[in-house]
Amino acid sequence: MPMKLIKTEKDNELVIERILHAKNHVLILDRDRCLGCGICKETCPKEAIEINVAPKGDEEKAEPPIIEIDEQKCHFCGICYSICPFGAFQLKVDGEPLIPVIKTESFPQLIREIKIDTEKCEAGCVECEEACPLKLIKVSVWTPDGKEVKDVESWPNKENLRVDLDLDEEHCPCCRLCEIRCPNDAIQVRKIFLGNLKINQEKCPEGCQDCLDVCPIETTLYLSEKGKVHVNELTCIYCGVCKYVCPEEGALELQRTNVHHTQVKSGAWNKALEKLASTKEMSKELKAKSLKKTRETVNKRLSWRSR
After folding, report:
1. Distances (CA, A) of 156 to 61, 123, 143, 152, 159
2. CATH classification for the domain delimited by 4-103, as one of 3.30.70, 1.20.120, 1.10.3230, 3.80.10
3. Kind plus residue range of the DSSP H or E element containing 128
4. Cα distances (Å, whole numbers) of residue 122 to 20, 152, 163, 182, 185
5. Cα–Cα dist 113/260, whole Å
6. For residue 74, which of 89, 140, 158, 237 sits 20 to 30 Å off, Cα-Cα?
7. 187 pairs with which residues across the strands?
């Protein structure tokens, strides 16, 4: 049994501590990065995470849901850390970062596959930096001798300048806005989640745009000239925050069909995948694992026979 359980709110962080005789576990939720999408709630094996949607007045904008964690139920397994597309969680054991489910290879990590070719970047172009809705990109320009150039437009010979692009990958949900807006094809992004978001227009309350208010990726949800909500699935990250604030049941239908993740052999992941994605997708992944295992077994036998 734990010696002490402590739950505190400080500096816009929710901190859960479990202090034992031999170990000290600390789970930190960065509320500035958390957008209340609920993916952590869907996958938490102990149902320790809850989503609270704040009520709003008729003239007020909808606010993102608030994540709450029950310190009595949390087992500090690290699944929330592994699955959060925004990198809003930290987990430390005795002051050092340590994620039990990753250490034991019982749960995968999300793969953020982002390729950047700064050779294609034009000095002075900041399209990707301005496009990033979470402000995770910083573009800088340098002279051949290592001095940063602040005013690129006044520089006589731009061809000699070097462009650096600093991207905070750990917190990137891979919306692809930077790739789409880059005029020089310098960025390629593979989405973490694939799926589809269906908006049933006939069920949308008149004048409601709560989903637009909370969507973390600008331009993904937008209003038509007739005042109806539409979705641009090129940039949708299928986080699901919109479905939590939608006041009308059935107006939004979210289905995830694929999760880009590291490979693990885990029953815990199979259960999480069943909650995150469709049953069809889970069946496809299990079938793919089975085929891979069979192929590896056959190859081993063939290799052994050829000796």
Report:
1. 47, 12, 12, 9, 9
2. 3.30.70
3. helix 127-131
4. 54, 10, 7, 10, 11
5. 9
6. 237
7. 116
The 10 Å Cβ neighbour count of residue 137 is 21
Asked if 193 contacts 43 with a C-beta cutoff of 8 angstroms, the reply is no
- Retrieve residue 87's tokens: 């990198």
Tell me which fold the domain 193-266+273-280 belongs to: Alpha-Beta Plaits (3.30.70)
Distance (Å, rounded) from C-alpha 212 to C-alpha 150?
A: 35
pLDDT in tens, 22-39: 899 999 999 999 999 999
Tokens of 284: 């496809």
Other beta carbons within 10 Å of 32 = 10
* Strand-strand pairing, 193-199 and 187-190: unpaired
The pLDDT of residue 306 is: 53
Amino acid (1-letter code) at residue 83: I
| Domain parsing of the chain, residue ranges | 4-103, 113-190, 193-266+273-280
Alpha-carbon distance of 188 to 70, in angstroms, equals 39
Write out the H or E segment, with its range, that includes residue 126.
Answer: none
Domains 113-190 and 193-266+273-280 share a fold: yes
Over residues 234-274, the pLDDT tens digits come to: 999 999 999 999 999 999 999 999 999 998 888 889 889 98
Structure tokens at 109: 């990590």
Question: pTM for the complete prediction?
Answer: 0.87
CATH entry 3.40.50.2300 includes domain 113-190:
no
User: Predicted confidence band at 302 (pLDDT cuts at 50, 70, 90)?
Assistant: very low
Tell me, what DSSP letter sits at residue 81? H
